[in-house]
Amino acid sequence: MNKIEHLGIAVKDIAASNELFTKLLGVAPYKEEEVASEGVKTSFFEMGESKIELLEATKKDSPIAKFLEKKGEGIHHIAFAVADIQSEIERLKGEGFVVLNETPKRGADNKWVAFLHPKNTNGVLIELCQDIDS
């Protein structure tokens, strides 16, 4: 793993949260997009080499909607940048981690993504991400 790529924060209202984080961080989001396959709308703020990703559910049965219903707004995941996501998935499986999607899928911000089950990572959902172009 190369670095913390971003922290994902589940929010109920992305427009209101964009205003709040713009005031807090002193910068506007650099990108907003919807990932229809995951039922989520995202917004990204860049802070040096790291990012904050806000996530709003667009479907009632999406993972973010379920998270918000169970835990409310707050940190949803920590994402780590990796050079080779498939090799990292295999390495982590070999270490005993449960990978939620062994085949990387297209995520927001032009990334391939895969997730580790939080039951194996002290209750924290871990996202692996690799630039699609690399």
UniProtKB/TrEMBL annotation:
<dbReference type="InterPro" id="IPR037523">
    <property type="entry name" value="VOC_core"/>
</dbReference>
<protein>
    <submittedName>
        <fullName>Methylmalonyl-CoA epimerase</fullName>
        <ecNumber>5.1.99.1</ecNumber>
    </submittedName>
</protein>
<dbReference type="InterPro" id="IPR029068">
    <property type="entry name" value="Glyas_Bleomycin-R_OHBP_Dase"/>
</dbReference>
<dbReference type="GO" id="GO:0004493">
    <property type="term" value="F:methylmalonyl-CoA epimerase activity"/>
</dbReference>
<feature type="domain" description="VOC">
    <location>
        <begin position="3"/>
        <end position="131"/>
    </location>
</feature>
<dbReference type="InterPro" id="IPR051785">
    <property type="entry name" value="MMCE/EMCE_epimerase"/>
</dbReference>
<keyword id="KW-0413">Isomerase</keyword>
<dbReference type="InterPro" id="IPR017515">
    <property type="entry name" value="MeMalonyl-CoA_epimerase"/>
</dbReference>
<dbReference type="GO" id="GO:0046872">
    <property type="term" value="F:metal ion binding"/>
</dbReference>
<comment type="similarity">
    <text>Belongs to the methylmalonyl-CoA epimerase family.</text>
</comment>
<dbReference type="GO" id="GO:0046491">
    <property type="term" value="P:L-methylmalonyl-CoA metabolic process"/>
</dbReference>
<dbReference type="Pfam" id="PF13669">
    <property type="entry name" value="Glyoxalase_4"/>
</dbReference>
<keyword id="KW-0479">Metal-binding</keyword>
